[in-house]
Amino acid sequence: MQLGDSYWEDQLYLNITYNILDKQPTGFGNGGFSYGFSAGYIKDIPFNRRGNFSTGIGIGYNYDSFSHNLTPNNVDFTSNPDAISSQIGLHNLEFPIQIRWRTSDAVTYSFWRIYTGVKLSYNLSNNFTYTIDNEKFSFTNIDKYNNFQTGLELSVGYGAFNLYVYYGLTPMYKDAYIDNEKIDTTITKFGLIFFLL
Fold first, then answer.
1. Residue ranges per domain, the chain?
2. What residues does 117 pair with on adjacent strands?
3. CB-hemisphere CA count at 13 Å for 151?
4. What value, to the nearest 5°, has the Cα angle with vertex 78 and ends 73 and 84?
């Protein structure tokens, strides 16, 4: 390839994040360290010949783990101060749709980038666990979990290493209440995303 040739920046990505549960019900917060990782493929579709302005459409897999202090069952949520080791494990398919700007060309492989857009996700499975009096409780694929979610994402950086932010727009739960208060919890993520050509 030569400078000025058209090219497509198709990429594999790997994402590692620190996760936060936002908009938790009154008196509830994040129970401890929460994390996530994603991996997938993004198809690049340039808008111009140089290829530094494009859109990207992708598919990937995402796993998220949350420490929390809500105790769910198959139909509702409760507050139990004796519950410990409360965890949520999520397996998702994700579909990023991005607008992409970069300082690249056909012969440059390290460059500045700003990629932003929306990420759609579909939950393959969710698992909620907690322990009370040494007895472990586990609930899988609870009805109140919102299987379809969307969020805004932004990645900024140079070369393979980039800062990453995700802000969830869709509540994690649907028609879920605790003590007559609606649960509008959303997901926020901060981390690093690695792009591999």
1. 11-196
2. 98, 153
3. 19
4. 85
- Which is it for the CA torsion 108, 112, 118, 119, positive or negative? positive
Distance CA 107, CA 174 (A): 48
pLDDT tens digit sequence for 69-86: 776 665 566 665 555 667
Cα–Cα distances in angstroms (integers) from residue 195 to residues 54, 81, 88, 99, 136, in the given order: 16, 43, 28, 15, 39
17 HSE (CA, 13 A, CB side): 26
Spatial contact of 123 and 92, defined as CB atoms under 8 Å apart: yes
Residue 28 has pLDDT above 60, yes or no: yes
Cα(168)–Cα(118) distance, rounded to whole angstroms? Answer: 10
CATH topology for the 11-196 domain = Porin (2.40.160)
Q: Is residue 157 within 8 Å of 110, Cβ to Cβ?
A: no
